[in-house]
Amino acid sequence: MTWIGDNWPMIWDQLREHLYLALIPMVLGLVISLPLGYVATRFSWLANPLVALGGVLYSLPSIALFIVLPAVLGTGILSPVNIIVALTIYAVSLLIRNVIDGLRSVPEDVLQAAVSVGYGTLRRVLTIDLPIAIPVIFAGLRVVTVANISMVSVGAIIGIGGLGELFTLGFQGGFLTPIVVGIIFSLALALICDVLLVGLQRLLTPWARAVAPVKEATV
Amino acid sequence: MIEFEDVTKRYPDGTVAVDNLSLRIPSNEITVFVGPSGCGKTTSLRMINRTIERTSGTISIDGEDINSKDAVTLRRGIGYVIQNAGLFPHKTVVENVATVPKLLGWDKRKAHSTAMELLERVGLDLKLAERYPAQLSGGQQQRVGVARALAADPLIMLMDEPFSAVDPVVRDQLQEELLRLQRDIGKTIVFVTHDIDEAIKLGDNIAVLRVGGKLAQFAPPSELLANPVDDFVEGFIGKDRGYRALTFVTADELPLADVPAELTVAADGSPVGWANGAAKLELVGATFQRGDSLRAALDAVLTSPVGKGVCVDETGKAVGVIDYGALTEALRP
Predict the structure, then answer these.
(1) Per CATH, which fold does B251-331 belong to?
(2) Strand ranges inside chain B, DSSP E
(3) What is the mean pLDDT of residues B188-217?
(4) Where exactly are the structural domains of chain A?
(5) Does the predicted interface ipTM exceed a cut of 0.95?
(6) Contact A118 B139 (CB under 8 A)
(7) What is the least distance, in Å, from the CA of B134 to any CA of chain A?
(8) Who has the most CB within 10 Å: A19, A107, B55, B280?
(9) Sign (positive or negative) of CA dihedral B235, B240, B244, B246
């Protein structure tokens, strides 16, 4: 406890960096997967290759990616951009499946009704398809967020890793406290982000919980 | 009036869904497209709002080609009801109904109040307005579907097997209410069903289509029952068409006999039962009114314990009876 108190400014900085490195890729991943997923539902032959590609990308080892990316992107080896790009790739590779599944979860008769009452395509996608796909997309978003929070620590190997730097510190100094603190804070961060996402989802989808059929007096 | 002129729908794989269909659908009436599956009835319906584009021929509404304006604008002016209602699950009931007014850019408050009026009109409990579709029964959802189709007061309403997924009792109720609603609103309704009984009950005109998308016969139901053009139509109408045709003849002209002494009536004149020599009264069975069909009169005779059908007036008072002999005489063409 005293160790946390003594080192709070450093931990606080690492916490913020950790959050930033985890959440920016989550947002970027979503922004990229949404149009990509829509195109894949529009041209259904694209869906399977995209999901497969996502699987392959996700299986790339993160350390390898962190080290190769600077060469590919021309960024400095210590630039946080490397982490952000790498985690965005993982986010897209996971989210693409959920976006496709989510958009496909919109019932056919709902789509048909939307077209028939006079929705244009863009309006329909934004106000009918996407909202209905939210529960499935959010399931992916939660996985991505927790995975990102855990993966940011790996970045400590190349010197930018938020709370992961506490692990380096512990190993180098040969004492356990920073490692335990790093683990606890990472877990807490993951838990809080997950709870916030669940809360946001409930806020966005009040209809998803309204399933109890009302007892009918008349039809 | 909606006019089909030599309309054909051929899919890229060569399947012909609708074959050279020419048809005039009169305004302010219910026209039913009926036929077995694969007869192109839904395709024909959906070509009207261009959710399916025809391959050749023209479709016009009140003389104006439906391709003269863009499809989205066209659709906002045509109500549409489908099987299972197709309500938007993430919008409340009242938001669902207000959909088209909002698409048309109506003021929010006006869209909302119009939606509430329509919900009332289709007989939905207004307490359900803020619920989500998943919280409603199938019959309630279908009422909301009809309200949504009517929200922007379109001249035309297309209905694609709207009542086929609900149970028979609810279906019957929804059919009755559609007829009642139509008496008030007088829309041009095109209704698709595979159920000939539904077609006969609802249609002012019926288009019978055969597999391959060809029109077999287009006629009012009474004409269809009396004079089917060929074996296909006759087979499709079913065996008891003679009996069902009685639906279209009223009981107004039936020669009634006076109420006999054996018929016990209550203080208000309503029939209670037949004193048929037995110790106990035998219940009357079904009754009919002037204005009902011959089918109702025949039913009253058939269900009577003494072979006499009781005719009542609007207040339920017995005004006369008819027996087998007089009724069969009246049935003779």
Answers:
(1) CBS-domain (3.10.580)
(2) 2-10, 16-25, 30-34, 56-61, 64-65, 78-82, 156-160, 188-193, 205-210, 214-219, 263-265, 271-274, 282-283, 287-289, 308-312, 318-323
(3) 94
(4) 2-206
(5) no
(6) no
(7) 5
(8) A19
(9) positive
Q: Which fold has domain B2-247?
A: Rossmann fold (3.40.50)
Superfamily of domain A2-206: MetI-like (1.10.3720.10)
Task: Encode pLDDT of B288-310 as tens digits.
Answer: 988 888 888 898 888 888 888 89
Residue of A nearest to B47 (CA): A116
Model confidence at A145: pLDDT above 70: yes
Banded model confidence at residue A219, pLDDT cuts 50, 70, 90: very low
Whether residue B86 and residue A113 make contact (CB cut-off 8 A), yes or no, is yes
Task: Kindly report, residue by residue over A4-29, the tens digit of the pLDDT.
Answer: 888 888 888 888 888 988 999 999 99
- Within 13 Å of residue A192, how many CA atoms lie on the same side as its CB? 10
Q: In chain B, whose CA is at the least distance from the CA of A204?
A: B90
The answer to whether the Cα torsion of A83, A84, A90, A91 is positive or negative is positive
Segments of chain B assigned to CATH 3.40.50.300: 2-247
Return residue ranges of chain B for CATH 3.10.580.10: 251-331
